[in-house]
Amino acid sequence: MLKVLLVDDEPFILQGLKVLVDWEAEGYEIYTAVNGKEALDFIKIQPVDLVIADIKMPLMDGIELLKEVRKLNDEIYYVILSGYAEFGYAQEALKHGCVEYILKPVEKEQLLAILRKIAALNKEKIIEIQEKAKKDKAYLDRNIMSLLRGKYDRTNIECISDKIDVDEDMCYVEVQLDVATLSEDYSDEEKKEQLNKLYLAADEFLKNDFALCIMDVSDSEKTYDIGFIYTDSMGQKLQLSTEEYLKRFYDYLIANTNLEITMLVGKSVSGIKNISKSYGTANMLRSLQGFREKKNIYYYEDEYKINDTGILICKKQLDNLIDAIEGGEHVEIRKRVDEFYQEMKNTGVTESTMNLNINYLLFQLIHLASELDNEVNQEEILRMILESTSEEGIRRGGRTHLCKMAYAYGDYITQLRKNVSKGVLGQIEDEIKRNYASNLTLRELSEKYYINSAYLGQVFRKKYGCSFKDYLNEQRLNEAAKLLRKSDMKIYEVAEMVGYKDVDYFVNKFIEAKGCTPTKYKKNMAV
What are phi and psi of 169, to 5 degrees? Predict the structure, then answer.
């Protein structure tokens, strides 16, 4: 409801205005004042959207009130009532932003027309504010992503400097939706709807700090997440430690969404210039979940902390396994995995022992691939392989999971030697251009063109400078822009035509890519 203040020193005029129209039906809530001073005192305490004031009143007249209102709030709509038709009054009122100047006695249809005009203006203003807020958030998100990926400049830091103390201690926090707990019938768009639900709950909890939260950060098709930069001052304001604050955040999200989530907390770093290091460690945590016991919140420092003395690395068995992976022989890989687990059983497995051995194995595999191609981001390859081989029902840390990962990595190494991507990428690019509106996935394309999905994702990024998911989004949004320019289709029709069932998600992605909403883009192109 819009709040309207009726101001007149004549009681019967006020009463007549109150009964002249059905204010509630028009979307207005009425307040009254008998002179300009009383009206001004009221507005200072209770903000209003519209003032309808007589021009001649004791203590403070309508023009004086208008001038004072403008000092308080330039957004309040103002209408002058007058028994005078002199041009000078109207000129003075319009100079100070009066939207209407009407003569007494006020007619019903005239008043209704003014109320509906102001309601329409207010609706347009709200839409403009919302669109500006979305645009500003998309711009801020792009700058934060540049910082997270370590590809930033002074402009990126300046953009975020009014939201955060850029020199304080901070860490990157990923909150991922546990999609395995959702129904198998859930489509990608339905999963995104659940992610949006999580994002809105984060907004409610973080309040002013929500500017530091981004939806859908990961490049992985299988990960639905929101990212958040936590600074030490956030917990300090509530007299909470980092662990207490994040536990409260986690509990709030669970309680208000009824969704299963996992929180990954990257390494604490000093200053925003180092946040990419924290982001990288959170990505590593995501990759290593398959080798860890299930937790609600993983902290990088805890997962890589080794307190036991005399912990044993089964180096011989692991080196044999690495040789088998390099050879790409699945039977040999299975044999070496069994030997490794047998040795772990003989020595007495503890969580710290398992973690240390797995960490040794994974980083040796990174080194192995780096020798074949030092330009490829091996940590990202390893992450993608770990994610692609982690299926529901495989016991975390189990040998089946390790075998699957080893098979996939062996295939990747084989293809890295052959460099099979040279002819395949052109075919895949053509397929994306033809079928961008379909639910294309990296895994489906890799199976169709007989190439390891993790390797395909990496060489895709190497050639096009972005992830497969970002490239597909770019194709969809470019086609959407073309439809907006050349057709009369509605926004939701365009979204669906290019492959987006969630219109809000489409609008947010369009703003990120084009710098404005689809509606504004369409209007600008029509000019």
Answer: -75, 140
